[in-house]
């Protein structure tokens, strides 16, 4: 099911904002943010170094896991077409994926992961 921006909760809108900010800070094409079972949030952007390449979702999930998160409640991905590999978040039980374009306009919400 696809929600409209008006139907997103304040917490979900915050995830989109955090993903946009991570993307902008890094000058990256994509950013992601996740929320864990306690409500803590983690954000990341695509990383492309000569010796290291990380997807924004993988980075945000890795930060959550390293901080002790046991479950990902929701994921927001911001970038061209809302692209991003959701597998790392799904591995941690995520069932809500929010996709937005680079400007933060909502492209869709998948409440089934």
Portion in strands = 25-35%
Compute the number of strand runs. Answer: 7
**Helix- and strand-based class?**
alpha+beta
> How many domains?
1
Low-confidence stretches: none
CATH topology type: Cytidine Deaminase, domain 2
Report the total helices. 3
Task: Quickly name the level 1 CATH class.
Answer: Alpha Beta
Instruction: Please report the distance between the alpha carbons of the first and last residues.
Output: 11 Å
Helix and strand sequence: HEEEEHEHEE
Mean pLDDT: 91
Oligomeric grouping of the chains: single chain
**Shape designation:** globular
Q: What is the CATH homology-level superfamily?
A: Cytidine Deaminase, domain 2
- The radius of gyration computed from the alpha-carbon positions, rounded to a whole number of angstroms, is 13 Å
Descriptors:
113 residues, alpha+beta, Cytidine Deaminase, domain 2, two-stranded antiparallel sheet, 3 helices
What does this structure look like?
By secondary structure, the protein is of the alpha+beta class. It has helices at residues 10-26, 56-66, 87-91; strands at residues 31-36, 41-45, 47-49, 52-54, 72-78, 97-100, 106-110. The radius of gyration is 13 Å and the shape is globular. 42% of the residues are buried.
